[in-house]
Amino acid sequence: MRGMRSLRGSSKAVSIFRPARLSSLRSIFTGCRAVMLPRFGGPEVLELRENVPVPNLNPNEVLVRAKAVSVNPLDCRARYGRSVFQPHLPIIIGRDVSGEVAAVGNSVKSFKVGQEVFGALHPTALRGTYTDYGVLSEEELTEKPASVSHVEASAIPFAALTAWRALKSNARILEGQRVLVFGGGGAVGFAAIQIAVASGCHVTASCVGQTRERILAAGAEQAVDYTTEDIEMVVKGKFDAVLDTIGRPETERIGINFLRKGGNYMTLQGEAASLTDRYGFVVGLPLATSFLAKKKIQYQYSHGVDYWWTYMRADPEGLAEIKRLVGAGKLKIPVEKTFPITEVVAAHEAKEKKEIPGKVVLEL
């Protein structure tokens, strides 16, 4: 058979399957819809384009037919400009995805065509997930538990892997330890609470009023509404790990002071991204490295604690554990609202205006 051409309904995404012409792919899909970022700016710059090329797979890559992709704060920040993306515009944005395996590279052993998977790309990936067909490495994906939908699954991996890196790779939390999370109502913070609880830790979190009950239901022992309570007054004792998803000078000060000697403070708001965006990699990265080193020395000397900038990265072991927790009903991130991919501009506008406080997912 030389080729089979199919048209996917209203998406008009054209795919071509040529089993007689295999190279690094078992199937080749040549065109699909994708949300492109042609220039930096507000939500209005996003363009849903037809017949965007699908690249050939490398041996370790998987082609995923997307069913749902979530909107992350990183996606919104990328719209306004990052130096790493500037030379490559237009790019496809998006990090999370849940869908079905459409094709696999020659060395992929963990997945087969038709299998339901979910996963996330690293923060600087140039070809994102807002597309009918996403390309991820084998280590960036895991099997989707049957107990959750694609919409639910798509909201989880990027946030959960960010939390996992902070708690498991940086702080190396252990059963019985105390963990404090600033911003427990956000996706990363809420994932961190559930991961820490599942690890047998005692968790306290700051939040706003409407998320308090959800945080307590997830297993936190104390949830402090920072709009009405003074966390320094109502929280007692010292902690082994502090995850600061807010990253303001005040939360840094409070978090450091709450740590016992040998504890770990992790912030999502490190200076690496802002400095490299401002000065480029050649100048910005050494500046960021120097800034981080000074912070580490400062807090090790003054408080005897470790200081970390934490960020998401691919972690097959972490993703496997996240899958297990999701399947067991111990890890979930509530989805506030869904939009069809054709309404991606409206979805970004709603998030930017803070009209939707919770997680937003785009359905394909």
TrEMBL record:
Domain of life, source organism: Eukaryota
Pfam families in the cross-refs: ADH_N, ADH_zinc_N_2
Gene3D superfamilies on file: Medium-chain alcohol dehydrogenases, catalytic domain (3.90.180.10), NAD(P)-binding Rossmann-like Domain (3.40.50.720)
Residues in Enoyl reductase (ER) domain copies: 41-362
InterPro entries: ADH-like_N, ER, GroES-like_sf, Lipid_raft_assoc_Zn_ADH, NAD(P)-bd_dom_sf
Designated name of the protein: Enoyl reductase (ER) domain-containing protein
Organism of this sequence: Brassica cretica
